Amino acid sequence: MQLQRFWCRAKNPDVRISLPVVCFVWQIAMIILFGVFVRYDEESDAHWSEHKREKNITSDIENDFYYRYPSFQDVHVMIFVGFGFLMTFLKRYSFGGVGFNFLIAAFGLQWALLMQGWFHALDPADGQIKIGIENIINADFCVAGCLIAYGALLGKVSPVQLMVLTLFGIPLFAVEEYIILHVLHVRDAGGSMVIHTFGAYYGLTISWILYRPKLDQSKRLNGSGYHSDVFAMIGTLFLWMFWPSFNSAISDHGDGQHRAAINTYLALASSVLTTFAISSLSAKRGKLDMVHIQNATLAGGVAMGTAAEFMITPYGSLIVGFCCGIISTFGYLVITPFMEKYMKIQDTCGVHNLHAMPGVLGAVVGAITAATASESVYGHEGLVNTFDFKGKYAERTPATQGGFQAAGLCVALAFGIVGGAIVGFILRLPVWGDPSDDNCFDDEVYWEVPEDEESIPPILEYNSHMVGKYADRM
Amino acid sequence: MQLQRFWCRAKNPDVRISLPVVCFVWQIAMIILFGVFVRYDEESDAHWSEHKREKNITSDIENDFYYRYPSFQDVHVMIFVGFGFLMTFLKRYSFGGVGFNFLIAAFGLQWALLMQGWFHALDPADGQIKIGIENIINADFCVAGCLIAYGALLGKVSPVQLMVLTLFGIPLFAVEEYIILHVLHVRDAGGSMVIHTFGAYYGLTISWILYRPKLDQSKRLNGSGYHSDVFAMIGTLFLWMFWPSFNSAISDHGDGQHRAAINTYLALASSVLTTFAISSLSAKRGKLDMVHIQNATLAGGVAMGTAAEFMITPYGSLIVGFCCGIISTFGYLVITPFMEKYMKIQDTCGVHNLHAMPGVLGAVVGAITAATASESVYGHEGLVNTFDFKGKYAERTPATQGGFQAAGLCVALAFGIVGGAIVGFILRLPVWGDPSDDNCFDDEVYWEVPEDEESIPPILEYNSHMVGKYADRM
Amino acid sequence: MQLQRFWCRAKNPDVRISLPVVCFVWQIAMIILFGVFVRYDEESDAHWSEHKREKNITSDIENDFYYRYPSFQDVHVMIFVGFGFLMTFLKRYSFGGVGFNFLIAAFGLQWALLMQGWFHALDPADGQIKIGIENIINADFCVAGCLIAYGALLGKVSPVQLMVLTLFGIPLFAVEEYIILHVLHVRDAGGSMVIHTFGAYYGLTISWILYRPKLDQSKRLNGSGYHSDVFAMIGTLFLWMFWPSFNSAISDHGDGQHRAAINTYLALASSVLTTFAISSLSAKRGKLDMVHIQNATLAGGVAMGTAAEFMITPYGSLIVGFCCGIISTFGYLVITPFMEKYMKIQDTCGVHNLHAMPGVLGAVVGAITAATASESVYGHEGLVNTFDFKGKYAERTPATQGGFQAAGLCVALAFGIVGGAIVGFILRLPVWGDPSDDNCFDDEVYWEVPEDEESIPPILEYNSHMVGKYADRM
């Protein structure tokens, strides 16, 4: 009885204590942990000139910074403007979409530097994490997993819940990534499995557990407006344009980065055409739906996350994009409504269509491409470099690699679903300040929202003493 | 009589069959053609490490990817966000502006890789097109020609017509480019002739043939809104900021790229000041017009397309920008209304002012700069490198080069006008689903447009069963 | 009496003569001065291939262009989209925010190339300024100082006043920079002192002198709207994402750029969390304020401007960001209203909170970090390279350097305040076309503003002859 009352008490979306506490405590924890564990690596440390001499590096341009910084900045734009603006499409949740995305990404990248550092970048000599450009790209990648999860929950959770989702999501990601990339020695430079599959199922499972049967009380706000749809296109286009950088950011220097960028570029172009086709085909008089254009056009990039650095061939990339545009748009038309009605999964942004299905497809494509790789196509050196068949993996064959790639997908799925279930139950605790069912998708709950432009008082009134909200801003 | 009825039947903008068919068939054709013809070049192929050894290349950083990828991404942003958002300025055609731009660019870049490949990148050894970073930059350039043409037609054509415009525009571009750059051995790294002059006259000629005498029936929608003007500024600024990358993206490694970026940067800055000056001078009380600021400020970049990589000197660049800002703004004030009234050319975005006139001027500036080049200014090697006076062109003098540059302009004009005339007649066939005169500039025709934010039903109604469009999105 | 009438005559915001005259005359002056003084440097000149041979440079990739161009483009985006869109937050001053920012930046960068060139890049051999990529980055930096000053004045000044502000601001900046960087040999690669402290106090002093006691007559417009707040987030995010490029753009090749980027990345992330915390803590029900999120999240980048290239350690960066988020948000809550009420400083964008306080803090942090530098942390070579202890500074110790760093801050403050006072008095002359007190923050004064989307005439009227403003645009 007591317990019943605890679980079902009325929602109180006041986060005045909880949000500041969470932000302060976690940021202070970051500072302490960074103080103990994190230092510069040999390429960002002032000892670089000595390191250069020792390793016979002839020029500063060989610093990894110059290989990867342009890609890093593109990835950074995808995380903050891409994901952020993609989530501004709701007519009255644009602040929350771009703002909370900003908050959790800023927290997540610090936490990811630590968690990924412990697993991948620990210097055995002194037990410290040495960071450089590749680490901050990986931290951005890690954050992407949590932002994808946010997409499924957009408008239905409080910022505190999102911080908790990130707090648990980052370590789950780091462990999953460690198992897939290091234990199984799987290749996944653009993260079809590691980022997209994991992130999407993590978010969908949480959404399933947080199911709100009365969510249609907020139906009036769960839709886009004319301008919010244009804002969302900013996010779409920056994601679409920079996805070649995403998939090539941490692949091998030289041909690896070059090929990954080209393959992704092609797959994305192909997705656009099939998305327009299916969207038009599905509506009366062939009218296009902005939701499809904003999302399904990106599916080709997701599905190239694993195979982009392989010799999948240009037409292979086009085929992947072709299929993904179809599958993803079809998902928005059929699967999302089905999932909501019959499976009790409310997926605000349709991450199942944009990340889950294309991610799984990308993993399968990657496994097949790896399994069919051969020295005649790659050359001996090329094969060794591309799949990193070195050291204790020197004897691994492409066919075996294909099997391990498939195993990697299972790990990503398992971590997403099991992790999401656990975190979902934690997020159901009625202490996180989530909105009531009739207040979802509404910025008024967590933001000071300005009155609309339309309500500018006429000029006659300017002499009266306004005590409104704008007074403070002057 | 039958024919009469065929040509004049009422417009039916239903594209439910035609758009999906066009998208599917053409995308499948791309896949087949890529399968037969397109492979990676030696810098994006897994054999790169062997190639490196053969050519004595000491470092991966020498891969062309690292010279050009940052510029490529900037160009990519110009194509999709730059052109796309520049065309969102109409108050109710923002979806069409940014969305159809997205569609035809995604198709066009694939088609351009093929067409340009056949003309410029065919490997004689195996008859295949080998692609790398420079090819995808060139594909983006090629697409720009068609997007410029779209600017003249914005709001008056269907997406199917735009696909047809692109289908023909890309090969026209590729042939024109082949004649100008290879047959005439003209230098045009930023495409004043090849891209801007061609694209603008191609679009204007089509617009002339598709002239709508009763277009003022849509006059209520043929204008901007406050927010749509701010959206358009996103496009303007990304074009403006990244134009130095556009003009330097495929110019020579080293000083060529360096100088092209600096010259373009200066010309653009100069254009801004004269645009503001003329815009203010022309209006009552000196009020500025957003149309001028959004467009004429870019004219300096167009006009530096040919000469940017030459030793035009910093002050030469400023002079070019100075003139272009004036000419272009003047065009918006005087020439566009004149062309519409007396020449029956309806030019929605004013591409005549932004691309045609500055493009022609840029070609002339380029010809003069080339003709006056000398070894005292360039140095012997510099002159040879800049104008590529090698092989069978080793004996060409700067003066001769100037003449060929001028000939290049004529080729671009001819292709634009003749090509536009032919394609214009094809687009007049009443089967492409274009809107009626009173439905132009209206997203409602081809898009599911959300109801406005202002019409959010009051909270009282949320329990009633809404069967509206938002229900599906939940 | 006559004088009294001169100073107090009614405002007339007609700039039809003054703005075009200023733009034309100053642009022509630029052309002449560039003609006399500005040439390409050895890396952007066609003699590069000879220069390469002389200096034994083996590859074009060693051209400074490839080290700095990606960072340059990021900085360029910050100047035009970052600052521009950050200033669109007012509900009816978005045109002025982004448009006048565009104008003065385009003028300022030309003027800065000259002024900075005379002080820093004069070739003693021929008395000319030789420009390359580093110069145009520095010109963008110089412009940033004036744009910060604009932030304090947003909505209250005419474009002519802004041009005057820039005309004087650039030389003040160049002299101040010369004294700080060259005379005092201070390190300030990201400009905490040189750019932010100077720019902010320059603007605040001008605002103090231009104090408008009756500004509350415009109170109805001095606030944001829902969409204008989302537009401003575009500016915020591009500033936030690209700040690592800002602070690393001109620091040393290799580890210097690498470390500066990482440190700035971390400080910015940390600022976000404390900004959200304080913003939420300060409002009823924990509601977040967009003004804080748009601005205070950036404070960490400002404060890392000096120390980013030093070995401040990753946790040191986090601590700086932590403090700045708190101080800056606190400034918006308490100090800005205090300054307006008691100190008669009206600071529209709150530059005191975003630039002045974090800038001063950044200078102090830089001085301390420099003073505590040691060979054990930097290595001998690292210390010499980082602080440039070469030539006549070879004997300077870190402790002395710390003292000079602190002296640099005083110079920046002095130039900002004294320069601002002088320019403020010039701007009070009643000839510059500034708006009256009840017309501030209103685009109607200087722009042709389209009627709102909401006022689209119903379709019934389309046959009547409209003679409205849109007619010209068709």
From TrEMBL, chains A, B, C:
It comes from the Eukaryota. GO terms for molecular function: ammonium channel activity. Keywords: Ammonia transport, Cell membrane, Glycoprotein, Membrane, Transmembrane, Transmembrane helix, Transport. The chain crosses the membrane at residues 21-40, 72-90, 102-121, 136-155, 162-181, 193-211, 223-242, 262-281, 293-312, 318-335, 406-427. It is a multi-pass membrane protein. InterPro entries: Ammonium/urea_transptr, NH4_transpt_AmtB-like_dom, RhesusRHD. One of its GO terms (cellular component) is plasma membrane. Its main location: membrane. It is found in: Cell membrane. Residues 63-429 form the Ammonium transporter AmtB-like domain. GO terms for biological process: ammonium homeostasis. Belongs to the ammonium transporter (TC 2.A.49) family. Rh subfamily. Homotrimer. Functions as an ammonia transporter. May play a role in the elimination of ammonia in the gill. This is Rh family, C glycoprotein a. It comes from Cyprinus carpio (Common carp). The lineage of its organism: Eukaryota, Metazoa, Chordata, Craniata, Vertebrata.
